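Run log, item B.
One chain of 486 residues. Sequence copied directly from the ordering sheet:
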Amino acid sequence: MSKATFNIKLVIKLLGFMLFLESGALLLSGMVAWLYKGDDAQWFLLSAGITAVSGLIFYFIGKQAKRTNIGKQEAYAFVTLVWVLFSFYGLLPYYLGGYINTVTNAFFETISGFTTTGSSVILDVESMPHGILFWRSLTQWMGGMGIILLSLAVMPLLNMGNVGLFAAEVPGPKVDKLQPRISGTARILWIIYLLLTLFEVVLLKLAGMGLFDAVCHALTSMATGGFSTKNNSIAAFDSPTIEYIIIGFMFIAGTSFSLIYWAFTFNFKKLKHNDEFTWYVYIVLLVAAFLSFGLWHVEGLSLGDAIRSGLFQTISFLTTTGYTTTTAYMHWEPLLWSVFLLIMLFGGMSGSTSGGIKISRIIILVRQSKCELKRQVHPNAVIPVRYNGKNVPDNIVSTVSGFLVLYILLVFIGTAILLSEGLYLVDALGAVLSSISNVGPGFGAFTQNYYMMPDLSTWTLTFLMLAGRLELFTVILLLMPSFWRK
């Protein structure tokens, strides 16, 4: 693509607006730090100032940009750069305040937040001041529904050519437009997201959780992020009521927000006739039943504890939230914990805040395989792939197949890099799958923390987190010379 056709000034100008948005989020975290009289308030003020000034510089560089539609190249470049820049400026309070002592680890922590992965390099979370803990949670909440989606809801300037931005960021093969204008859809989705978050805060507070902890956990569970204010995650609260509340909201967050909107408007037929939602419910029930039986029969838990733990771990890993009520799952029977490897690949529904391959793609792949088997028996038959009662176009089937191939390729390359740095296979594969699926907890040595990860491996996982959150194609296409040719 020639330089003349790529509207770089427009991209820079829009990035400036986005940095203003992030500076506001940093200021909000600074206010929390000030309310709790933490020494981190000064670092948030400084970070917000640096981010705002940078945004101003970006804006003036792109000030003369023509107000034109954003093409595919601009949309994909802008979306990827926003996530990278947000993570770069978002690391400032961690690094400037000395809470994380290397840029590599600070960037890892920040992008883990914005991508809602939940992997952490902080050894003692409970020693962190309130402002830092709130910022960790806020990064996940902003990244959950999508930074660009937030901008489309609040920034009129981004209302031009925004279908490309919407498609480049929103998780899954397709998300329904709820309003004729994408900005209207974005606004509805964020209102629902906010209302559900506030409702969860109230329920967690009523269940006995402190207000600050309730806010932070509501932010991260609705984002399917998994950051906690406690070293032992949800297990620290030792409350079945709190666990069941979080189970419910993780399940909701793993559901397509388009379906949640239809549920809000009492249009339950949309849920009843949605293939992906049906599969989602069945997967939860079947896997939870399997784990619960195993924990009761093999691991010796009481029936009530086994059901609660099985359901919690199933929904947490399937929705890629990554909360845990036990850190000992690697000591379970291998058949039990290996189920986590499978369901964290699946992820939640398209258009939800969860990561992973997405259940809609799994359905299409399974039905495509079934159709191929039928074609082997009846070579001349026309057997289309069906989804939600409609034929799936061949280009969609090809895209889904391509996504899976790319996913496997990135897992292979990422695992090879980690193995070259001396990690064991289970540790390396678990960390890679957790990162590209935006889950958080890994397997083996990385069930709780990634502090000891070598630098090259850390940057590899950082890239995989970003690629996974932006549905692989958005990031990978930018690395292909053919994408930039006219």
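Observations after the first pass:
- The longest helix spans residues 8-35.
- The mean pLDDT is 86.
Flagged for discussion on Thursday.
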